[in-house]
Structures are given as structure tokens and as C-alpha cells.
Specification:
The chain is α+β, with helices and mostly antiparallel strands. It contains 11 helices and 10 strands. It has 2 domains: about 150 residues, no CATH class; about 130 residues, 2-Layer Sandwich (Nucleotidyltransferase, domain 5), CATH 3.30.420.10. Strand 9 and strand 10 form a beta hairpin. The N terminus is likely disordered.
Length: about 300
Amino acid sequence: MQQKYTYNRLNYMLYNKYISCIIKGMRYTVKQFQADFPTDDACLDAIFQNRYGDVDTCPKCGVVDTKFYKVANRKCYACMHCGYQLHPLAQTIFHKSATPLTSWFYAIYLFSISKNGVAAKELERHLGVTYKTAHRMAAQIRKLMEQDGDPLCGEIEVDETYIGGKRRMASMYNNKSVVFGMVERDGVAKAKHVKSAGVRVLIPEIHQGIELGANIHSDEARVYTKLSQQGYTHTTVNHSKLEYVRGTAHTNTIEGFWSQLKRSIDGTYHAVSPKYLQSYVNEFTFRYNYRGVIAYPALLEQASKPF
């Protein structure tokens, strides 16, 4: 049975035990991909179905139970009564692209199954396109992975990390970019490239990203000391004293997320400009949130929507 996923709050649905048991056993292999999308017309039809569904009323002539047929040699569909055309690629990541849809779909497939990201040079080799085209395709696909604005709840771990830059004698954090993260235990993650790790920056991020009443776990950083006075339950572990777990208090989940993020950036992308760091953070946050399930349908549905 073909399943369609909606990005907003889909992550919570996927953690329903019954659904997880079904989906975790599924694999979407390259053979299945090739069978589902062998031609550009098959890809275009998938985009049309995701964007318009079973449209049965013409927006122009208003005829009910009409049919829309593929226009020969064009990437659009026309009403059988008045000829009004629907363009499923308009305002999507495929808009005005000369690259075949089969190449786009395969690039999205590679992003969906990769654990450590897909470099533009790798796309160039896979698809036989120029580096400029591969770089643009990768940037467009990352737009599909933007995070939603729904707040987290329950047991939350928060932490900040530093990425890129060069270590200086004065401070190991000079010239590095700060990324702040929040992770639900057995749930989803949020991460954002922020200007600094100060109170004026991180506390508003916590208020915006975490529901009041949640139980927040952090290290001993001073920025978190007043969370218990701001509507949260707060527990800490003291890493400076080699304390990493105390009862249910720990930050091991988000430390694992940082570990995967940094290893992937270092191994796949090598260096990321601060200007574009957020798009890469979005990519790995999306991948974390869809761990253990098939991400391709979600990416394909997002790719079919105008933005």
C-alpha cells in the first residue's frame, strides 16, 4: 500500500509503536525506485498526483468529473473539456530546470537513503551532470528538509556545539559557528545556527522551541541555570567533574546527534560556510527525525509542493 506522509508533525505519528513496527521492516531499494519511476512521464505523474490529488473539477470551466490528460511533449496536463492546463512543476524545486526528472528523483532518492549526506561531486558522478548543476540540485533538495515550528515537549535535552573555523591560541572557539540543539528523548530534534551561546540568544530559542512544563536536561553551562524559574523542570549533569549520567539526567542523546552531524560534515562536505550552515543542519536534523523509516515519500511529497 502506497503511503503518503505530511511533513508537519509526521515525526510524532511515526513513533506510534504500531506504525513503527510496520514501517521499520520496509526497505525502499533502488530496484523498487527504478520500477516506480522509469521515465520522466512517470515522475511527472507522481508530482501531479502529490500536488493535485484526484482533481475532478476544472478550475476554469468548473465542469465536475472532468479528466486531466498529459499534454504531449509538454510538462503539463489539460482539462478534457476546455483545455485549461495545470503545470505541476511550477514554483517547485523542478521549476524551469532542464535536468531530466528521472535525475532529480534519483538525487532525492540518494539523499533519502544516505546516512552521512551526499556531496555535490558525488551527485555529479552519479548523474553525469556538471558540478554547477549538481550543486544547485543538492541545495534545492535541502530546502525540502527545513524544520517546522512546532514546539517540543516531554523529556528534552539541550546543548550547543561549535562547528568550523580555525582554532586560535586565545580561545578554541574563535571563528567557529554556534549551533544550538534540542532533542526529545525517543522523539524528534531541532537545531539552529545561532549568533552566540549567550543567554540573550539561547533562552528565547528555548521558549520558542520547547513547551512550558517540559523537563529539560542540560550540562552545567551557566546559560541554563534559571530555566527552573521560567516554567520548566530542569536537571543538569556536571561534565567538568566527569559526571555524565545521574539518574534520568544526561545529555547523551543530543551528544550522539552532534557526533553524527560533525562526522558527516567533516567526512562528506569537509567544510561548510557559516552562510549556508543552517541548510546542512536542517539536512541532518531531517535525517535524524526520519531515522529507521522510509524518508523518500516525505521528500517527494515536499518536492511536489510550491514554495
